[in-house]
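call fold(seq) -> tokens
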Amino acid sequence: MTSIANSPDSSADQLLSETPPVARSAVLGFYAVAILFNLCLVAQLLSVGLAYFYDPAWWNLHVWLVRGYGGLSLILLVWACWLPFSQRIRALAISLTVLLGLQFATVHMPLPLAIFHPLIGFSLFSISATLVHRVKHMLSPQSAAHKA
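ret:
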């Protein structure tokens, strides 16, 4: 079994134990924005399902949501570069921004490339959930207990 000290996030995990409370509150803020982004993705997925299977009027909500929360990926990207997060968390934040850009691009492309739109959406949700999980792991007291 690999110890926490050898994990790719071990240096970032030390962020919370070795820095002032300001850094902890910044990580908590990042975590809150990551959760909000993830919840917006869930709402968008539900709205597209409602639009496709129930009533096409739900499509307006689907479009409104992405226009509303799209900027959160940029906020997460800047925040991830601003704080001393691990490379993994930074890569996840970069991936969110890139994939959201690809989502915008594929929705306006001819049909052959538009087929990737739902696949990119699935990847976007998976990466978003992984980001939330990674940051939660940093904030959990169990992480500090493993190092002791």
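The radius of gyration is 18 Å.
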